[in-house]
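Reading a protein record of the kind used here takes only a little practice. These numbers are not coordinates but entries in a learned vocabulary of local backbone shapes. Here is one such record, which you should read through line by line.
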Amino acid sequence: MARYWDLVISEQRIEGVAWSYASPTASFADIRDYFAFYPDPLDACCVDGEVVTPQPGKFYGGWITGHESGPFKGVPGSQFW
């Protein structure tokens, strides 16, 4: 089960912008206690200096760079891929 986190910068609060897993299943044990961020509500998120494109749909937290190619889940009609 994921735990969702808010980000507070000065007087601004962005609710549910990050998530973590305190007790992931065994196959995901390596991500225990790490934070993952949705890039969409933030001004910019970068990987090696490249600004990422948020994965479509605002539900998924994917960070798309020039190194990935789609199709990407989140566009209309991709709910049950």
Q: What stands out?
A: The mean pLDDT is 91. The chain has two domains: 1-37, 42-71. DSSP finds no helices and seven strands in the chain. The CA atoms of residues 6 and 16 lie 5 Å apart.
